[in-house]
Specification:
Layout lengths: L7 H16 L4 H11 L5 H13 L4 H6 L1 H8 L16 H28 L7 H14 L2 H18 L4 H24 L7 H36 L2 H10 L33 E4 L2 E4 H10 L3 E6 L4 E4 L27 H13 L4 E8 L2 E11 L5 E10 L1 H4 L14
Antiparallel strand pairs: 1-2, 3-4, 3-7, 5-6, 6-7
Length: 412
Amino acid sequence: MSELINNRDHRIATLKEIILHLHRGEAPEQVKARLAHLVGQVDATEIAAMEQSLMADGMSPQEVKSMCDLHAEVLQDAVAQPEARELPAGHPVDTFRQENRALESAIGTTRERVAALEAVADQAYPTAERLAVLEAFNALMDVDKHYQRKEHLVFSVLERHGNTGPSKVMWAKDDEVRDFLKGAIEVLREESLGGAELKLLVPTVLRPALAALESMLYKEETILLPMCLGLFTEEEWGEIWQDSPRYGWCLVEPAAGYAPPEPAFPKDTLQLPAASAVAFPSGSLSFQQLIGIFSSLPVDITFVDAEDRVAFFSEGPDRVFARSRTILGREVKHCHPPKSVDVVERILEDFKTGRQSVAEFWIQMHGKFVHIRYFAVRDEAGAYLGTLEVTQDLTRLRALEGDRRLLQYDEA
């Protein structure tokens, strides 16, 4: 029958039906056999299209995520390896791959240290071995920078090409890896850890965390990156390269050599003459002054229009949450982790219907106290225009006491 399945739509439909057998409880070995017989080889874009089709039919991203590792297992032998494409050193994909090689090496080191810890688990408190494993897991948390570039840059461009499924599922899996690593670090910090607790920790926390991270490396290398190379334009890779430093690098720095193409319309080109004034009821400001004001605000602002798309964000020097220009025009629900989307959609719905006009949150993050507020923006007649997000690091302000009545400049 495989000779009849000779076009992409048929392969995707057949692949989807086979994968559904997994969700119905069929053994992976049986699904693998059926897959080999009916489909042969599929490429990364077809796997992404299959998962997106599952969600279009009503399957939740959470269910797809829960089966994602099984999907990868049964598809491992069926994925067609793309032709090797030579990329210049420093190209965004080259950087992702070099980071993956560094992560593989770090995972190997961590496994060795976990084995050494397990070997002395009968000791009361094997401090040196525990701290060595803790150090290794702390190094692995650098993957957060890798994931942020993927989630905010690569996924933004992927969605332009109509692919929202991979971003929902893979972002959820990224968060799962983060939670595994954070859980391992938290428990390894316990100074009283020893004996039976250590023996239990290795198979239930430490090794699953490493396996989850390693599994994501495989998904990136065999599905995500080949798919993006087939879809993205060179200009889009240039956008990703331009905004990548906002998020940082994982374990290794990018190599030199990649030169992005010149954009057709440079992003820094002013759309109004610098001296042109924008008139407000309470005064006027030149376009250059507006840029300067937004860049000087002690808060970060992001505006989402009435169609729920990111329309603007300020670019101050000390943003709490990094923003890249690739998110402009992106649906705001895709800018958040899947576990937060329900809250985002509820806020937008409450603002649009007029039930609410303000929502606020505060969180402790990396030693900072961060205050996040959302405001419904309406015109004079009360019609909804969009939502304004205002984020501020209040750590210093919350520590103020007494008075300051004399001029005193703080260090920058």
